[in-house]
Design a protein that fits this description.
Blueprint lengths: L2 H13 L11 E9 L9 E4 H14 E14 L2 E12 L4 E13 L2 E11 L3
């Protein structure tokens, strides 16, 4: 998979409600996610793969749906750079919206790291 295809595969899987070990085949064993400070995580976070997958399980429990709308993408070597809007609908029907810059690094067609800058709309 190209870096953009890998990023899109992850977004589609999350939109389909997949989480946890269902996502593991998309990642290298040493994958990490770096979340830069935002409204939900004011200090940011760095999560290795197992923690990332556990967090996706928690997210699935909170959300009734989520959608990724990619506005632009650029590839530089093994990195996909995406500008997107994420919309998540909580189980109580409330909606969260974040405007995101996402850097997805790949190795051998798998995601090895995601660095994300999430700008949430007020909630």
């Amino acid at each position: 998979m190209t870096p953009v295809e890998a990023a899109h595969a992850l977004h589609r899987a999350l939109e389909a409600g997949k989480s946890g070990d269902e996502l593991r085949p998309l990642f290298t064993a040493d994958a990490v996610t770096v979340e830069r400070p935002n409204l939900i995580k004011p200090h940011g976070a760095r999560s290795p793969l197992d923690e990332m997958l556990a967090n996706s399980d928690k997210g699935t429990g909170l959300l009734s749906s989520q959608k990724y709308d990619v506005h632009s993408e650029l590839v530089s070597g093994d990195t996909a750079i995406l500008r997107l809007t994420w919309t998540g609908v909580l189980r109580d029907g409330k909606q969260l919206v974040a405007h995101i810059a996402q850097f997805v690094d790949t190795r051998d067609g798998l995601i090895r790291s995601i660095e994300t800058f999430d700008c949430y709309e007020p909630f």
